[in-house]
Structure formats: structure tokens, C-alpha cells
Amino acid sequence: MLLYVTVGTNDLERAGRFYDAVLPLLGYRRQKQAQGEIGYGADDDVRCRFWVVEPFNREPATFGNGVTVALDAPSRAAVDEFHAAVLSNGGTDEGAPGIRPYHQDFYAAFVRDLDGNKLSIVCERPE
Predict the structure, then answer these.
(1) Are strands 5-8 and 50-53 parallel, antiparallel or unpaired?
(2) Which of 4, 5, 29, 64 is 20 to 30 Å from 73 at the Cα level?
(3) CA–CA separation, 52 vs 40, rounded Å?
């Protein structure tokens, strides 16, 4: 259903360093960079699915209360590794890795990036 997702930043270079460090743990790498934006995608994808952007209107980037971008992880270990990588790269914890009440195999962690954007890293596969 989703074509791509964007998150805003007030410092594209800093955000790029952050996402370059954490997104490869989920199989995504920087695919494109242009004025005001960086795109990430999987090697076999036809387009970037995750973009970090400076707002088009030139106003400061802000995060939305209630907005969460959920990223699929291939394993529970990948959720743990991503959570640890986010914290070691300056992000903040919003919920340590663990089973959530949505169903028996919903293993997730919640974090915020350097601009306050909330991310959920989820593995729905049995251990």
C-alpha cells in the first residue's frame, strides 16, 4: 500500500550519518542523494522507500505526535541490533525490544532519531 515514507530533518548531513549507520542492519542503504534529501532502499528495490528530507517549505522540520514509521526486521536479533545501534548513534529509546500485545509474535522496539522522528522496528516471525 505504501509507496515511500519521508521523515524531516533540520540537519541533513547529521541525519545521513545516523541513517547510514542504522538502516543497513535492516537491509537498506543510501541509494540517492540530492539537494535537501537522501533516499534509502534495498538493493533489489526499484525505488527508494525511505527518505530523509529537509522540508520543502523551508520551515523547521518537526515530528508529528502520534506518527510512527514501522520498519520490518528479518529477525528478533535484528530488532535488538537496530535498537542498540540507534542508541549508540545518538537516538533515544521509546520502548526496549520485546513482545508487544498485538499478537504473540509481534516483537518490536521503539526509538527516536536525532530529529525526534519515531521509528518502530518490528519482527513478526516466531523466534
Answers:
(1) parallel
(2) 64
(3) 8
DSSP string of 21-34, one letter each residue: HHGGGGT-EEEEEE
pTM over cut 0.85? yes
pLDDT (0 to 100) of residue 2: 83
Question: C-alpha dihedral over 17, 18, 19, 24, to 10 degrees?
Answer: 90
For cell 542508541, name the residue: 87
Residue type, 43: D
- The answer to whether the beta carbons of residues 83 and 93 sit under 8 Å apart is yes
8 A C-beta contact, residue 14 and residue 113:
no
DSSP state of 16: H
- Say how many C-beta atoms besides its own lie within 10 A of residue 108's C-beta: 22
Query: In terms of C-beta density within 10 A (0-12 exposed, 13-18 middle, 19 or more buried), how is residue 10 classed?
Result: middle
